[in-house]
Write a structure and sequence with these properties.
This protein is an alpha/beta fold. The protein contains eight helices and 15 strands. It folds into two domains: 126 residues, Response regulator (Rossmann fold), CATH 3.40.50.2300; 112 residues, Orthogonal Bundle (Arc Repressor Mutant, subunit A). Keywords: DNA-binding, Phosphoprotein, Transcription, Transcription regulation, Two-component regulatory system.
């Protein structure tokens, strides 16, 4: 198989990065049957070639590539393109899962997996990562979402803006977790509750997922992540959002 095979099919483009030719073909066939366009490559070089031609809606990334560490490649994709990533790998330890989420992957699926489960996870990530179009001129810039400490979280467009108005990139998991904390501002939420609210698996491994996402959010919104004052830990219980929050609903503002 060539280093990169261009997209075929219709619908949103999904890139498959897999050095096992049979597995890559199986995934490409599944994607096309689900209504997506698919393109495949066997290594990091092929992936960069495809990314230069067209940004995909999502990347399915195998960690065991011949020319670059999969974790390093995932971090590069997030930094350069912000494309959602689902990691597909035989490495199922908790450490590997946490590292994958730490570098910004949106989901992590251990081989062997069912194609039906993968298809469901793809739909979930795409559904939560697809932004709505900008509102027409003359409408308020934020009609549904939250404001806190000068920050704005736009629920419709799934965008976070800092106090100067600049966009701050969030992964799907980070956005869902921040929205859940803001909606429950002032109330402690356990990890189990946060897992429910962010629609993630109740696999025991994913209890640690919340801690990883909290650390990533603190680095992005806290003035001093080592001494957080917005997202506060309640030891042995869970987390709460301690700052003042404005809830925006249809352009109407209510304050906590």
């Amino acid at each position: 198989m060539s280093a990169a095979e261009k997209a075929t099919g219709q619908g949103p483009l999904i890139l498959v990065v897999e050095d096992d030719a049979d597995q890559a073909l199986l995934l490409a066939d599944m994607l096309q049957a689900e209504g997506y366009r698919s393109a495949t490559c066997a290594d990091a070089r092929g992936l960069m070639q495809l990314l230069a031609e067209e940004l995909p809606a999502l990347v399915l990334l195998d960690l065991g590539l011949p020319d670059e560490d999969g974790f390093a490649l995932a971090a590069k994709i997030r930094a350069l393109h912000g494309v959602p990533i689902i990691i597909l790998t035989g490495r199922g330890s908790e450490v590997d899962r946490v590292v994958g989420l730490e570098i910004g992957a949106d989901d992590y699926l251990v081989k062997p997996f069912s194609l039906r489960e993968l298809a469901a996870r793809i739909r979930a990530v795409l559904r939560r990562s697809t932004a709505a179009p900008a509102p027409p001129l003359g409408e308020p810039s934020l009609r549904d979402g939250f404001r806190f400490e000068g920050w704005s979280l736009d629920s419709a467009r799934r965008k976070l803006s800092d106090p100067s108005g600049r966009p701050v990139e969030l992964t799907v998991g980070e956005f869902d977790l921040l929205a859940a904390l803001l909606a429950a501002h002032g109330r402690i939420l356990s990890r189990a509750q946060l897992l429910d609210l962010t629609r993630r698996s109740h696999d025991a491994v994913y209890e640690r997922t919340i801690d990883v996402l909290i650390l990533r959010l603190r680095r992005k919104i806290e003035p001093d992540p080592s001494q957080p004052r917005l997202i506060v830990t309640e030891r042995a219980i869970g987390y709460l959002f301690a700052g003042a929050v404005e809830i925006i609903n249809g352009g109407e503002v209510s304050r906590s």
